[in-house]
Amino acid sequence: MTDIALNTDKLLFEIIDHTALITINNPPANTWNDESLKALKSLIQSLNKDNNIYSLVITGQGEKFFSAGADLNLFADGDKNNAQEMAQIFGEAFETLSQFRGVSIAAINGFAMGGGLECALACDIRIAETQAKMALPEATVGLLPCAGGTQNLPWLVGEGWAKRMILCGERVDADKALSIGLIEEVVATGKALQTALDLATKVAKQSPSSVTACKKLIQAGRSNPMLQALPVERDYFVDLFDTEDQSEGVNAFLEKRKPLWKNK
Sign of torsion, CA 176 57 154 82? Predict the structure, then answer.
């Protein structure tokens, strides 16, 4: 199932082997709006049903912005009902991204601000180019991060740096982001996308059934006590024996050949 139609031109989409490449395409700053957010949610839901897709990479069009977040014109009229609707749309889009069945990688090719950084925070792995700048500056304009920022950021960087970025409006460059655990790798300008795609090829060498189970367990650590999660880990291990990938993986190793994954 690779024929997925997007009902927007604000996202670009292509499939490269087992990887879905999504490009935020709303110049000049690749801002998000209701159209692109709904399209992102729908796209990921479709990708979850495609057994040939093991990973996704999301990046920004152009050389300056990954994404500057929300278009503030959406909130200029002070309409509370509109604010509630947009908060819901933002939240649902990035929560769907966070729950993507496979591995999601953000290739941060420039500024990732506000909802742009929240998009990256919803991914499993973040790779940033050396010139990238990251911030959650919503309080500077009388707002707050409402698409997971206040929850995902402290999980990655700790409470202190989360408060510096959210409460003090501090922005960080790629080197600082790496040192505090906000991103996993810094690369040269223009190299984030290819680095992310190369990492995605490593995902394709793993059993996709195993990756899905492992991702659920890792993310459960945010909300569940370890003693509660440990028996679930064992249950998931046994459940893999209901999949074709488990038998294929073990036998391919014993037969000294590459496994042919089916994601089933």
Answer: positive
Q: Helical H runs in 65-113?
A: 80-98
- State pLDDT tens for residues 49-105: 999 999 999 999 998 999 999 877 777 777 888 888 888 999 999 999 999 999 999
Q: From residue 23, how far is each of 10, 44, 58, 119 by CA, in Å?
A: 8, 13, 6, 12
Chain centre to alpha carbon of residue 92? 13
Helix (H/G/I), strand (E/B), else coil: 75: helix
pTM above 0.85, yes or no: yes
Cβ neighbour number for residue 53 with a 10 Å cutoff: 24
Known catalytic membership, residue 138: yes
Question: Taking the CB of residue 80, how many other CB atoms lie within 10 A of it?
Answer: 7
Query: Which residue is catalytic, options 14, 92, 118, 185?
Result: 118
Annotated catalytic residue: which of 138, 170, 184, 244? 138
Which tens digit of pLDDT belongs to each residue from 3-27? 677 778 999 999 999 999 999 999 9
Tokens of residue 216, six digits: 């659920």
Strands 185-187 and 133-135 come out as: unpaired
Go through the domains of the chain in sequence order and give each one's CATH number.
11-203 (3.90.226.10), 208-254 (1.10.12)
pLDDT bin (cut points 50, 70, 90) of residue 2 is low
